[in-house]
User: Which sequence fits this backbone?
């Protein structure tokens, strides 16, 4: 991919749009690129069907009225998921923010808008992936989830994973990554690689909100997106049949 040259000073937003456009061009030009990981997925697309829609709706109803932790009292709306429950690709974030709490949908604030652009750059959108969070209710003031909240709420996420049965899970940020991989290592050391877990590929990357606050993280995040695109092509998950 060619290096980007800026002939005059540009804002971070403009730089970001340049990077996205550059990245998208690269994806199209490299449509036959090979997988960047040595991982052999070891399964076929035929195993993808979830068949779990009724069960997911039952879990959703439980989440809507859940009071297992104090966040059930302070939330406006519980945030269960968005996207396609039959998708082989699941994205897992941390917890709802204020906009998500208001609308009852994940990733609809500024970080969500960035996530949409990132997905679009590799020909994905919300109809092609399933998006959810570790916590279903917003921690006040957007503070970090605590251990007790994660312990109380995580069975919902585990059921979602079981029902959706994704081939690839992209974890967004520290909390989702550490919860899924059961490690305490930080995201900076975990990202950029794939992990095999219960027959799924786990691909950690930065949370989009981190990219909004730290421009330096954008380039490695694009590299993670390239890796996701590689996996999608390798596993032939880009045929829109789900
Ligand atoms: S955060 Fe999870 S465990 Fe706590 S009330 Fe909400 S749905 Fe229930």
Assistant:
């Amino acid at each position: 991919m060619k290096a980007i040259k800026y002939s005059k000073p540009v804002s971070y937003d403009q730089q970001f749009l340049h990077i996205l456009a550059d990245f998208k061009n690269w994806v199209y030009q490299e449509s036959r690129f090979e997988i960047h990981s040595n991982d052999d997925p070891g399964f076929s697309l035929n195993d993808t069907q979830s068949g779990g829609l009724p069960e997911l709706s039952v879990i959703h109803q439980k989440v809507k009225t859940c009071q297992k932790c104090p966040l059930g009292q302070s939330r406006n709306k519980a945030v269960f998921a968005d996207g396609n429950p039959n998708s082989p690709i699941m994205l897992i974030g941390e917890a709802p923010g204020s906009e998500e709490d208001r609308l009852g949908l994940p990733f609809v604030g500024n970080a969500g808008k960035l996530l949409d652009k990132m997905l679009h750059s590799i020909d994905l959108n919300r109809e092609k992936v399933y998006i959810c969070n570790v916590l279903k209710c917003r921690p006040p003031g957007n503070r970090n989830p605590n251990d007790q909240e994660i312990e109380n709420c995580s069975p919902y996420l585990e059921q979602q994973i079981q029902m959706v049965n994704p081939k690839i899970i992209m974890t967004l940020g520290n909390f989702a990554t550490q919860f899924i991989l059961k490690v305490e290592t930080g995201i900076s050391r975990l990202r950029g690689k794939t992990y095999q877990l219960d027959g799924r590929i786990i691909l950690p990357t930065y949370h989009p909100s981190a990219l909004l606050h730290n421009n330096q993280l954008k380039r490695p995040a694009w590299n993670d997106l390239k890796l996701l695109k590689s996996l999608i092509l390798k596993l032939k998950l880009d045929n829109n049949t789900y």
